[in-house]
Amino acid sequence: MAGADPSALREPVTAETEPAPSSRGVLRNGRRLRQVAAIDIGTNSTHLLVAAVDPSLRTFSIELAEKSTTRLGERDPESGKLTDAAMARALETLRRFRDLASSHQVEQVVTAATSAVREAPNGREFLQKVKDELDLEVDLVSGPEEARLIYLGVLSGMPFGDRPHLLLDIGGGSTELILADGRDARALTSTRVGAVRLQRDFVKHDPMPAQRRAFLQAFIQGSLEPAVDKVRRRIKPGETPVMVATSGTAMAIGALAASEEERPPLKLHGYRISRQRLDRVVEKLVEMSPEQRRSLAPINDRRAEIIVPGALILQTTMQMLAVQELVLSERALREGLIVDWMLRHGLLEDRFSFQSSIRQRTVIHQVQRFAVNQLRAERVASHALSLYDATRGRLHRDEGPGRDLLWAAAMLHTCGQHINLSAYHKHSWYLIRHGELLGYSEAEHLMVAAIARYHRRSLPKKRHEAWQALQSRANRATVSEMALLLRLAAALDRRPEPVVASIQAKVTGHELQLGLIPERVNQNISLEQWSLESCASVLRDITGLNLTVTVQQ
Question: How far apart, in whole angstroms, are the C-alpha atoms of residue 216 and residue 281?
Answer without folding.
Answer: 18
